[in-house]
Amino acid sequence: MMTILQAILLGVLQGATEFLPVSSSGHLVLVPWLFGWSSNPSLAFDVIVHWATALAVIAYFWRDWVTLLRAGLRAVPALVHALSPKTRRPNDRDLWDTPETRLLALLVLATVPAAVAGALFEDFFERMFARPAAAAAFLLVTAAILALSEWLGRRQRDMRSLTWKDALFVGIAQALAIFPGLSRSGATISAGMARGLRRGEAARFSFLLSTPIIIGAGVFSLLDLSEAGALASQAGVLIAGFLAAAVVGLLVIHLLLRFVQRRPLYVFAVYCAAMGLAALIVALVRGG
Known about the structure:
By secondary structure, the protein is an all-alpha fold. It has one domain (about 5-285). Helix content is about 75%, strand content about 0%. It is built from 13 helices and no strands. The protein has helices at about 5-15, 25-35, 45-60, 60-85, 90-95, 100-120, 120-130, 130-150, 165-175, 185-195, 200-220, 235-260, 265-285. The longest helix is centred in the last third of the chain and has 28 residues, at about 235-260.
């Protein structure tokens, strides 16, 4: 069983790397393996720290989500009326064709690829999480993606110009990031930049997009918690991990949004490359 100190360390790692473009899944696979910990994080711990990061992103963007959801609730009856000549009203289009409803629709569309991939290929991805060398290799892929997005991205557009093709492109990038070591935020921010979004706008869309997928993954994982054993015996570890992940996650969102407004992503690319290479070398030495 993990110690409180290990739980805090992994909570900090989850809170930071869930939003930094350096792969939380890769770090949660590699860190216990690199340090030779006798026990890996339990299912209950994995679920609780993911809920902590979900809480962090909801807390940071709650105003955005309230605005988007209100617009969505107003849009549904307006759209129904607009589609029927008998009930159509003059202001229906003003309610369902707004920047907020378009953004909400694009976020829903971009969420679909990851949801489908997670549901169809759950067993495959679980096997990948048992292979530290694979996580290390995908960290190198993350490094390449971050560097290429900075080098090739035009970075001229804002979120108001997003189309369904842009959203689907970012959504596919998020689906691929289920692989351990392939950063979700790194993949989605890079995909947004590849479609011409400014770095800060791409990061904001990435964070908004992370909300439903993190919550969805947490809900899905809750269904398996019956296999986690007695939760009371893990209470101290779970609370420590949850608090560490939530506080650090909230802080990292704020700092990263400020950072990407002025600085390129090369520093994260260098870090991912160094971490990935170091882990691969250890894997070769250990033969694992």
